[in-house]
From TrEMBL, chain A:
This is D-amino-acid oxidase. One of its GO terms (molecular function) is FAD binding. It comes from Alligator sinensis (Chinese alligator). The gene is DAO. Keywords: Cell projection, Cytoplasm, FAD, Flavoprotein, Oxidoreductase, Peroxisome, Phosphoprotein, S-nitrosylation, Secreted, Signal, Synapse. It is found in: Cytoplasm, Cytosol; Peroxisome matrix; Presynaptic active zone; Secreted.
TrEMBL record, chain B:
Its cofactor is FAD. Its EC number is 1.4.3.1. This is D-aspartate oxidase. Transmembrane segments: none annotated. FAD binds at T77, S78. PROSITE patterns: DAO.
């Protein structure tokens, strides 16, 4: 049984690991291969700050909220393990700020200690009159992806640096099942008008006195188009750019200025911070995550593709729930082909 | 001498007359006719001395302020402390007073934290948890409404600390030494203050050159002025590099704590009453490290571990009062500002303001006596 995973961002690698761990013991000769043109540290996941936080409004998408919760609980369980530091996993508390009262988010009971901000706390942020405080988690892609890669290599998963141009290409080489984790460029394999880039740009600064995340929200400009400050294990990420439809991966001086000025206004102490790095990435934006099976015809034969892409600006936040869901779809494919004992039921 | 410029023989004669006048023997140590520039000596260059000096230089700009100390950052007791704004309760000081000092300190540092000065001053905002193994010991502290967002921890949050039954979550401020002390020193000098390195064995040595002495010698007061009510409480800590940590964790017993700062994390600690021993004990270091790793397992990966020892200048109450020292016909006004024990950082600005106020009173008394002498 040859499984080809396309894409080596957080989605591709975590899905590969999930499938391997659940099925290697019960599927004879399970071979998993990862194909990608970009590997860590050059994936979209590497550039993201790594804060676990879904969008404010789940738009009634309970499934995604459940996957978010599954991911949070999974990561929380790893917090006290010796692996945490290598994974790039650590707790992080902070502030979500608004200019007017808003309903509580779908994830208020998933994170720890969720509460509203007190008047004294709001004095920290002139211009904002309402907000939340909670403890969430950080999962830094630059650490997590190598950690996943190491585990996959230990399990005998093979990696290929190759841009796949069609599903047929892999099927011709003998892949039995394809897992499509191609993120923002999924449209190159199969047109998807619902998938668009949500371009982001970030500046990484050295500001070790910043110990909280601060995410501002402006209902008119939309998610992540308002300044945010997210400290990491070494550097602090400054951002606030979300440009739908912009494929440009080059850093824009105008966006740099926007980010810098607005973040310094939000947190005056940043004026003394030294800029160390800058990066632009394309969030794989879709109105909902595409997580489903599809039968692909190749000549006279047919194969199964499981799509797992379109995680927008919440890939790290939702990844494990999606990996588990993908593994369940994988299991049902195996059952249909009678290629394995029924898999153990996993939550 | 400050007043050698412009002296004429007539002035000198007048001063001589005043000095010898029986009613004015009090002022033998003073040179200026109108106390136009009172000379303040602040003894001690730790947190208390520096903050008092800065406060005096700002609230009484007409005076000159000189810090005199034998130790400076990074070798003061303050440098060993983590600098967290989590007060300790002094049994001998009224609670309303402690609350006022803490609030003044918190508000003062809060303003610095929100400015571009925060990194140079070494100030950061940090959230975290104070946890208790037994519920009964968790009372509402007097400072719970001064720190930010104080509340009980949720069940889910407590899962992170399997051996603990109850906890409090809040956000407070932290001062990093040596940054904060260096920043205070810079502010003092910017206000025209001076800093001299010298060991003072006797306060009377200062009488010739200074009008008022502010005693901020901490544990040194025991020897310098013979205060037997002050005693050391030895604290050993580890300073480690673990930049992924951004929450503080404090065991309610006050013995185990993890305080992340700007450049390092302080792990503690001990409270050994009566010990003057400044040498690090390797067994204690291991014990601190093990206990902190039990609270926060990722500390196993901490690097660059350094040991520090400090003697908390402990006293039932902070001594913050005026005293007029008398030696024959000589008098020396002293403002005492020492004995902050475990709570130096939490109270420092409040006590600095009070010390400055007392210095102002001393100046007023001196000026008052002087104007009476003119009549």
């Amino acid at each position: 049984m040859r499984v080809a995973v396309i894409g080596a961002g957080v989605i591709g690698l975590s899905t590969a690991l999930c499938i391997h761990d659940q099925y290697h013991a019960i599927v004879p000769a399970l071979e998993i291969e990862v194909y990608a043109d970009r590997y860590t540290p050059h994936t979209t996941s590497d550039g993201a700050a790594g804060l676990w936080q879904p969008y404010l409004d789940d738009k009634g998408n309970i499934q995604e909220t459940l996957w978010n919760k599954e991911t949070f609980d999974y990561l929380l369980g790893h917090l006290r393990s010796p692996e945490a530091e290598e994974m790039g996993l650590f707790p992080m508390s902070g502030y979500n700020l608004f200019t007017q009262p808003v309903p509580d988010p779908s994830w208020k009971n998933i994170v720890l200690g969720f509460r509203k901000l007190t008047p004294k706390e709001l004095e920290l942020f002139p211009g904002y009159s309402y907000g939340w405080f909670n403890t969430a988690l950080m999962l830094e892609g630059k650490s997590y992806l190598p950690w996943l890669t190491k585990r996959l290599q230990q399990r005998g998963v093979k990696f290929f640096q190759k841009k796949i141009r069609s599903f047929g290409e892999l099927l011709a080489e003998g892949a039995d099942i394809i897992i499509n984790c191609t993120g923002v460029r999924a449209g190159e394999l199969q047109p998807d008008p619902e998938l668009q880039p949500g371009r982001g740009q970030i500046i990484k600064v050295l500001a070790p006195w910043v110990k909280h995340f601060i995410i501002t929200h402006d209902t008119e400009s939309g998610i992540y188009n308002s300044p945010y400050v997210i400290p990491g294990s070494k550097l602090v990420t400054l951002g606030g750019i979300f440009q739908l439809g912009n494929w440009n991966e080059e850093n824009s001086p105008r966006d740099h200025k926007t980010i810098w000025e607005r973040c310094c206004q939000l947190l005056p102490s940043l004026q003394k911070a030294k800029a160390v790095d800058e990066w632009s990435g394309l969030r794989p934006v879709r109105h909902r995550v595409r997580l489903e099976r599809e039968t692909i015809h190749h000549g006279l034969s047919k194969s199964e593709v499981i799509h797992n892409y379109g995680h927008g600006g919440f890939g790290l936040t939702i990844h494990w729930g999606c990996a588990m869901a993908t593994a369940r779809l994988f299991g049902s494919i195996l059952q249909e082909k009678k290629l394995a004992r029924p898999p153990q039921s996993h939550l | 001498m400050f007043w050698t410029i412009g002296w004429q023989s007539s002035t000198r004669n007048t001063i001589q007359y005043l000095r010898n006048h029986p009613a004015l023997k009090f002022h033998q140590n003073w040179c200026g006719l109108s106390m136009s520039k009172p000379r303040i000596a602040v003894i001690g260059a730790g947190l208390i001395g520096l903050s008092a000096a800065v406060c005096i230089s700002e609230t009484i700009p007409t005076c000159s302020v000189t810090i005199i100390s034998d130790e400076f950052t990074p070798n003061t007791t303050s440098d060993v402390a983590a600098g967290m704004l989590i007060p300790h309760t002094y049994p001998g000081t009224p609670i309303y007073q402690q609350k006022q000092w803490f609030k003044e300190t918190f508000d003062y540092l809060f303003a610095i934290n929100n400015s571009s000065e925060a990194p140079s001053a070494g100030i950061s905002l940090v959230s975290g948890w104070q946890i208790f193994k037994t519920s009964s010991s968790a009372e509402l502290p007097f400072w719970s409404d001064i720190v930010l967002g104080f509340r009980a921890m949720t069940e889910m949050e407590l899962k992170k600390f399997p051996q603990y039954r109850f906890g409090q979550a809040f956000t407070t401020l932290k001062c990093d030494c040596p940054s904060y002390l260096l920043w205070l020193e810079k502010r003092l000098k910017g206000n025209g203050g001076e800093v001299h390195a010298k060991r003072i064995a006797n306060l009377w040595d200062l009488q010739n050159n200074y009008d008022i002495v502010v005693n901020c010698t901490g544990i040194g007061s025991r020897q310098l002025i013979g205060d037997l009510k002050i005693y050391p409480v030895r604290g050993q800590v580890l300073k480690v590099h673990a930049p992924w940590l951004n929450h503080f964790i404090r065991d309610g017993d006050g013995l185990s704590y993890i305080y992340p700062g700007i450049h390092n994390v302080t792990l503690g600690g001990t409270r050994e009453k009566g010990s003057w021993n400044l040498s690090p004990d390797p067994n204690i270091s291991k014990d601190i490290f093990d206990k902190c790793c039990a609270l926060e397992p990722s500390l196993q990966k901490a690097q660059d571990i350094k040991v520090r020892v400090g003697l908390r200048p402990s006293r039932l109450a902070v001594r913050l009062q005026k005293e007029i020292l008398v030696q024959g016909e000589k008098k020396l006004p002293v403002v005492h500002n020492y004995g902050h024990g475990s709570g130096g950082f939490s109270m420092h600005w409040g006590t600095a303001k009070e010390a400055a106020r007392l210095v102002g009173e001393c100046i007023a008394t001196l000026q008052d006596s002087l104007s009476k002498a003119k009549l």
